[in-house]
Amino acid sequence: MQTKEKIRSQLKQQAKKFSPTYFILEDRASVDALLDCPSYRRCSLLFGFSPLASEVDISFVLEEAIKHKKLALPRCIGDTLEFQLVEEGWDEHVKPSSLGVLEPPAGARAIPDRQSLILVPAMAYTLQGDRLGRGKGYYDRYLRVYPEARTMGICRSYQLQKKLPTESWDMRVREVLCNGFIYRT
User: 4-180 falls under which CATH superfamily?
Assistant: First the structure.
């Protein structure tokens, strides 16, 4: 099996083969499926993320969530990931972290409960819920603290892999959303 670094490098190269229009259409299918799925409809608190260019653009989901639910977004504090509750207008106050991820200002800390859904970004997923993150372990450490949380990974079709190398500390997600289809793991 290939190393995680090799797979990350290959995924970056594969992404260059697709047009921005292709990603817009695929992302729209995933956003529509997410807004219509039971996991999202039932949640009262959505743990989202500010997508990087290589991730599914869930901006519309965040806009909808802020109107109808509570929304929390991640901040990196040292080597720890914390989620902050945000309100309308949050996107006017985000700042890039040292990793280039847009983060909200410090605010009230959000803790997942049974009515929450955590959307988990990654570079790749498998249908079994294995994920390949960016290599820093932020989400693995966070999800280990909340093993009962409802989690959904979101990826583009080229990021869905048959198999990924995993370590004992890697955390799986319960559902994977890819190109408008939701796979339960």
Answer: NagB/RpiA/CoA transferase-like (3.40.50.10420)
